[in-house]
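Entry for the shared binder. Reason: the reviewer on the internal report wants the predicted structure included alongside the sequence.
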Amino acid sequence: MSRSEAEQFFNHLDNHSELREKLSDTPNIDAVVALAIEAGFTISEADIRSALNHMILNAYSLPRPWGWPLARKLGLVRT
């Protein structure tokens, strides 16, 4: 598992709006993984789940605008 690789991808998105715009406000996990791979990151669904969970537990901001909706879809937080 590479939670840190997923977190690096989230940071990469913060600095590359053209990539971030490829995701809808409520993407599915497959779309996030596909975009990460397109951007040169090697991550899986488990990596993204782990990174989002770690960020939630440590009160970090989630990727905007799609982080919280995806966390809800994945069952990491309640609605």
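Summary line for the report: The chain has a mean pLDDT of 92.
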